[in-house]
Amino acid sequence: MRRIVVIGAGPAGMAAASAAALHGVDVVLIDAGAKLGGQYFRQDALAAGDRFTLPRNVEHVASAAVWAIEPVDGGHRVHLRIGPADGPDRRGRAVEARALVLATGAYDRALPFPGWDLPGVFTAGAAQALAKGQGVAVGDRVVVGGTGPFLLPVAASLIGAGARVVEVAEANAAVTGWLGNPVGALAGWSKGGELVRYAGTLARHRVPYRSRSAVIEAHGSDVVESVTVARLDALWNPVQGSERRLEADAVAVGFGFTPQLELALAARCRVEDGFVVVDAAQGTSAPGVFAAGELTGIGGADLAASEGAVAGAAAAKFVGAAVEPPVRAMARVRSGRRFAAALNAAYPVRSGWHDWLRDDTIVCRCEEITKRALYRAVDERDVGGVRSLKLVSGAGLGLCQGRVCGRNVAELAGVDGTGFAKRPIASPIRLAELAEEEPVETPIDAEESGRVLGVEY
């Protein structure tokens, strides 16, 4: 029996599942969401999950958290818990497959600043999800800040939900940033229409859009009441005397995205510069494991879907299906990566944000670790990596396990932040669930278990 497991049902995962299934391979598509679409499509509650159809040989396992991956003879065993985390009927399941496609996506990156722990400060993705998915604005007067084109649809969604967007503060020089890579910028020409629509929405509602600006402080006793916005120099250092105080009851901030690497690291995939390294067929350094989407680089939904199509076809070939190289999808991947490179070059995160922080600014919200405490721990102890950093400072030991603070704390401490995603249990489970015996589904028969199939495109 030929079967692959795809983890993540966003654009990359759905494309991978469809591509593999169309080549006659049985697919188990696992996702934490209740509906298809992932973070990208789930934000439109009226569309997500209802307009997507998958081939019949794809089993969609919804509301499922993958908490571990382990190697078995001839393949991989994926452990998952199905059902709400606090539900009494949550059950365990283990699925074995010859090949895996990891399409776990990414989450918002938020930079710390004084007051970022006040109620009323949201990530841009959370504000977008509430506005599009529930029709709920995070506030009446909202300041949107950070960097990247994602700020535009966030602002438009907030306007659509009835909020007044006071200002959009873009930390980079948005227009001139594209001039360094015109070829890559042209590769994303199809996005121009979206840009024009969002810009038109902001213009109609008279929303100021200011480049080289950032929210450097939020003020309020119990909730956000106002923010300080300052102009930035090229390295993101605040320009003295440029500070402005804006009344607001909510802030939505986003500084790009951080890939969810837990399962990729558990599968022993090689990671460089924070992303999974893949070849032309989306194959990772781990045999039989393929990756697609934001895991391999931040490039948007279209690129993720193209990578997923390539990964699904390659996984199908790995388990023995007759597959012709997906030439068109591979060409779209190459073009999409050129655009992604230009995008990342135009919207970098500069080190000047360190100067936004005061000594008493909290950098790890779960454990309430301040900048002063973090620096003291680093100065007084021998910190060689993430493990020692967590032990001496306490940062990253809380409920989020460094998912929110890890990348920023690592940058402040001068260590590689990838280690925050290294954990044998990828998502929280109860001790009773850990001890519970799981039914294991084994599609690998004895005849196939000793045969290894390579993939060459």
Automatic annotation (TrEMBL):
It comes from the Bacteria. Residues 3-307 form the FAD/NAD(P)-binding domain. Keywords: Oxidoreductase. One of its GO terms (molecular function) is oxidoreductase activity. It holds the Pfam family Pyr_redox_2. Residues 362-412 form the BFD-like [2Fe-2S]-binding domain. This is FAD/NAD(P)-binding oxidoreductase. It comes from Glycomyces luteolus.
